[in-house]
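Try this one yourself first.
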């Protein structure tokens, strides 16, 4: 019914209380969003990118709804001007940058194929993107699949990943935040027939019951993979979340079911930020230089069981 909606869900019944809505013109939709305090006023703000392929200056491609004591503002602050000296732009998804309280990342699928790290500046009732940093890798720029970005922690480090599915393969490039976003690893992996990557649902995962952490990459075929790093390089594993309906590809209106599934799987809570990087990683754990673009067949991902030891009775 709306392009964006904020509802309060009752814990005792199926009733939803609508607190805020916004409708894009001509029935437009949003591709992705993040909730973060962009101006440091202790109110969470809503950042959204629309689902469009827009000519610069023709249509807004970046929206911020400032937060207040009542919720979100009714009218957004928007950007429709040029960025990266492009004449057209197609944002794919948004991501939080681990280790920074206010930094965001966005991926672009066309005409360029890369990611961008940035801060949002709010001044005089307008917004702008500052401190921009482009992330690119040959394995991603040479391709045709959709491009998505995600931030995560793994093996004591903080990383950004750019991924692009092509056929039955997933092209992946990893950037080390602690090394000034240096390209650390790149690899091509088998998807084992998973279909339709859900870019808006890519998110960091850290289990409270084990040392499992990484980047969840879900597909509409109900396959949920985890991308992580160890001393041997990139790990790409299927998880026990596959087949559980945690990331439904269609909206049946039953928010309670989705919320309960994600709560049980520990993927409902906000990403934890840390301002103090773990700079003292052991020398023996230093990752190797980037792999060349893999063209040979890769084995299917090994299964990874995400344990759930919580007592949900309460």
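Now uncover the answer:
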């Amino acid at each position: 019914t709306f392009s964006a909606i904020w509802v309060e869900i009752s814990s005792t019944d199926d009733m939803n209380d609508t607190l805020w809505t916004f409708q894009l013109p001509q029935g437009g939709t949003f591709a992705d969003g993040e909730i973060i305090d962009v101006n440091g006023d202790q109110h969470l703000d809503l950042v959204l990118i629309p689902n469009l392929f827009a000519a610069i200056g023709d249509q807004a491609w970046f929206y911020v709804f400032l937060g207040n004591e009542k919720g979100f503002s009714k009218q957004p602050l928007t950007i429709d001007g040029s960025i990266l000296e492009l004449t057209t732009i197609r944002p794919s998804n948004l991501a939080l940058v681990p280790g920074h309280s206010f930094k965001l990342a966005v991926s672009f699928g066309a005409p360029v194929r890369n990611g961008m790290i940035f801060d949002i500046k709010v001044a005089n009732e307008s917004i702008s993107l500052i401190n921009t940093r482009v992330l690119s890798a040959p394995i991603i720029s040479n391709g045709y699949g959709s491009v998505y970005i995600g931030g995560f922690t793994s093996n004591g480090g903080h990383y950004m990943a750019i991924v692009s599915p092509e056929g039955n393969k997933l092209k992946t490039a990893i950037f080390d935040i602690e090394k000034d976003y240096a390209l650390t690893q790149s690899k091509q992996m088998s998807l084992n027939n998973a279909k339709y990557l859900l870019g808006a649902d890519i998110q960091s995962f850290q289990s409270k019951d084990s040392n499992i952490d990484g980047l969840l990459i879900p597909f509409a075929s109900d396959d949920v993979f985890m991308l992580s790093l160890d001393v041997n390089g990139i790990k790409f594993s299927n998880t026990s979340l596959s087949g559980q309906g945690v990331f439904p590809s269609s909206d049946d209106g039953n928010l309670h079911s989705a919320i309960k599934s994600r709560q049980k799987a520990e993927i409902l809570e906000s990403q934890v930020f840390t301002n103090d990087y773990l700079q003292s990683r052991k020398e023996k754990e230093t990752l190797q230089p980037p792999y060349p673009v893999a063209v040979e067949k890769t084995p299917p991902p090994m299964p990874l069981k995400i344990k759930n030891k919580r007592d949900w009775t309460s």
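Discussion: Helices lie at 138-141, 255-264. The longest strand covers residues 114-123.
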